[in-house]
Amino acid sequence: xxxxxxxxxxxxxxxxxxxxxxxxxxxxxxxxxxxxxxxxxxxxxxxxxxxxxxxxxxxxxxxxxxxxxxxxxxxxxxxxxxxxxxxxxxxxxxxxxxxxxxxxxxxxxxxxxxxxxxxxxxxxxxxxxxxxxxxxxxxxxxxxxxxxxxxxxxxxxxxxxxxxxxxxxxxxxxxxxxxxxxxxxxxxxxx
Length: 191
Ligand SMILES: [Ca+2]
Ligand SMILES: [Ca+2]
Ligand SMILES: [Ca+2]
Fold this sequence. Notes:
InterPro entries: EF-hand-dom_pair, EF_Hand_1_Ca_BS, EF_hand_dom, EF_hand_pair_protein_CML-like. By secondary structure, the protein is mainly alpha-helical.
């Protein structure tokens, strides 16, 4: 939910680059999970930098008394076009609650950065899930098997024998069942 909010902020400034990043990234992951990953990390860093600048701007805009924190009151004042409606104050309270990750009742830059990092984490997980889907065995849902690994690698233009695939899996097979679960796959990809 917060992530959509970020996009909205970016959209205000008509930042086309951001949209392209997403498209490119999605495409690359599909074509070649491995190569796409390194570039994706670089892009993510760039995006983080951009997002941080956006947040600093947002902070400056809302933080009227300059104490580095947006109070519900400051937020309400800037969203003033709807001021006076009781429901707005409720919305503002909810918004602060959502953005205030350390729970001190104010929205600070740290809160926003932390939320951004969480959103990035979630996105990484989604990417991993997508990648796992591709390697997933259609007969053994939820696992990568030597067979499914071989199939996927050959689709990527790397032909490996079943024996090689077995030993690749063995390397990251934490519970020794000869299969890669999503958890084991995640550990492997985080390496
Ligand atoms: Ca303030
Ligand atoms: Ca806070
Ligand atoms: Ca396993």
